[in-house]
Amino acid sequence: MKKLEVKQATKIFGKSPKRGLELLKKGLSKQAIKEKTDLNVGVAGATFNVESNEIFVIMGLSGSGKSTLVRLLNRLINPTSGTILIDGEDITRMNAEQLRTVRRKKISMVFQGFALFPHRTVLDNTLFGLEIQGVDKEERKERARQALIRVGLKGYEDSFPDQLSGGMQQRVGLARALASDTDILLMDEAFSALDPLIRKEMQDQLLDLQSDMQKTIVFITHDLDEALRIGDRIALMKDGQIVQIGSPEDILMNPANEYVEHFVEDVDLSKVITAGHIMTRAEAMTCDRGARVALQLMNDNGISSIFAVDRNKKLLGVVDADDAAAASKSGTPLREIVQEVKPVQVDTHLSDLFEDISKSTIPLAVVDEQGRLRGLVRRAAIIHALAGNTAFTKAEEVQNV
Amino acid sequence: MNETFLPKIPIGHWADLLIQFITDHFEGFFGYIASGIQSFVDSLVWIFALMTPIVFILICVAIAFWRRGIGVALFTLIGLVLIYDLGYWAHAMQTFALVLTSVVLSILIGFPLGILAGINKTFHRIMTPILDFMQTMPSFVYLIPAIFLFGTGMPPGVVATIVFAMPPTIRMTGLGIRQVPSDLIEASDAFGSTTWQKLFKVQIPIAAPTVMAGVNQSIMLSLSMVVVASLVGAPGLGADVYLAVTSLRTDIGVEAGLAIVIIAIMLDRISQNTRNKKTGES
Known about the structure:
The complex is a heterodimer.
Chain A: E1 2-13, H1 17-25, H2 30-36, E2 40-51, E3 55-60, H3 66-73, E4 81-86, E5 89-90, H4 96-105, E6 107-110, H5 122-126, H6 128-133, H7 137-150, H8 166-179, E7 184-188, H9 196-213, E8 216-221, H10 224-230, E9 233-238, E10 241-246, H11 248-253, H12 258-264, H13 275-278, E11 284-286, H14 291-301, E12 305-309, E13 315-320, H15 321-330, E14 344-345, H16 354-359, E15 364-367, E16 373-377, H17 379-387, H18 390-400
Parallel strand pairs in A: 3-8, 3-9, 6-7, 7-8, 11-12, 14-15
Antiparallel strand pairs in A: 1-2, 1-4, 4-5, 9-10, 12-13, 15-16
Chain B: H1 11-68, H2 70-86, H3 89-119, H4 121-136, H5 139-150, H6 154-165, H7 167-178, H8 182-190, H9 195-224, H10 226-230, H11 237-246, H12 250-271
Helix pairs in contact in B: 1-2, 1-3, 1-5, 1-6, 1-12, 2-12, 3-4, 3-6, 3-7, 3-9, 4-7, 5-6, 6-9, 7-9, 9-12, 11-12
């Protein structure tokens, strides 16, 4: 379901933004317009949808317009043109009263510099949104306490923001946004001000919270690793325009243009690509078949072992060709010669596969959460994914020229 | 002088006409204000008298202790007892009432104006030169129209004091509001605050230390006006100093002057901006 639809959203800063719109229509770039007039194009024709329960990352370098774009979504900055629909309602046409209701009930925000109120305790910061809405005093305190527990800040209710570390302060910022219980969460470079270890911890916590709470999150960042780590989909921005929208893998494997290629060329692929991306179809047989059938299947496919599964495709183990040959002579049931294997999950990153694959003589079995066999990963596939990626070869060529 | 290439622009005459016009048409209105101020000051003096010096001193010491601690409390105790001992208690109470009235009115008028100047850029631009004018025009000059409009005694003294002492409250309030970090304003807006909610829950609380610094300055400027106010007949320590100057009495001059200094330091320390103890910052 579409939670947020943005169509041709444009923001031009300056005295006569209408003129800028015309110049944009004529196809002039941000720089050209800046040179010609005093106008500064913040966002130009941004169009995208955000689905319910999705983490949508808007990423770009500073000055790319990403912070402006996120502020258009709750109209902290009024768009010059375009429409922004939240649950099908166009917020650009709303009056102040309607807009306030949307901000109170549907969309909350976490800020880069935390933006905590220094004169309020952690609890009073957290309940701010509820207080503004006029929620009953005891209820808002209770809801704020719950939000603080969620972010792991139980016991800090009466502290003041400046008594907390950066990471803890941003947890308060997050709790404040969660307390309002809005469907949509805007996070403007929420973790950028934190040091790397804390940042990673916060990312993990956000992912945990998300699997629990199922919010629709629009996350702004300039950090590609962060975008790849937490984004279900990523929009890449440059000079106020969205250059590419896609899943992290899309962006890495099929960059839309040189800019994106250049952007992603230093990414550690092993931390992005998962077993699910590179697995191939696995030959498998159910255990109630005989050893002879197993041998036959291995012969047909030119393999020396085959995975054994039960009727529900749940992985039982692997059957070796030699064992199968012996078993077919002696008439041992197949079940007795199945050797256990250590499978990997579909979403395991390549970086976590290296050790397993180096120890294993056979391809790794890939299973889903229910333990069902989904495919297998060969050594060659890993190496291929890390090295033989056409998009990246192109990027190098571009650089060499 | 008749050879000037420009005829004299009769600014002084215009000012004269303006005051004449106002006294002719709004005399009743200003009369009400004057009697209002007079009765406010009178009731303060009456309350102070009712309290008796001992109670008054104890209250001041308690406030000083609560605001700043033992040092200022001790100073307040010794200072006020000294004033009493020197025999200036009644006049000190009059001065106290004058300053308190001026400061209360300065805050009542200045705080809203300051907020408006903090929020509205146009108002800020209009207000700035007016405030400059109010502060740089020699304070004696205010006395002349004040006499016409409010007669003699306490009321013109209070009005002249307000005109001179109010600008810091307006300026610092505006500054405090403008200095609220923009991301806090954004946060307030993002959660759906109305303008009033934003003002009372975010802007004013965060501006409070700066506003207090302005109020502190207003108090100090009010005290510096007590001698000037005595020129139009405002009673109190200022009148003693004025008398000392005109009759060349060093003793009265030093004693009354010392009393003013004691009150000034006491009020300054008590009203000085102290950081919120709870946040533990100094």
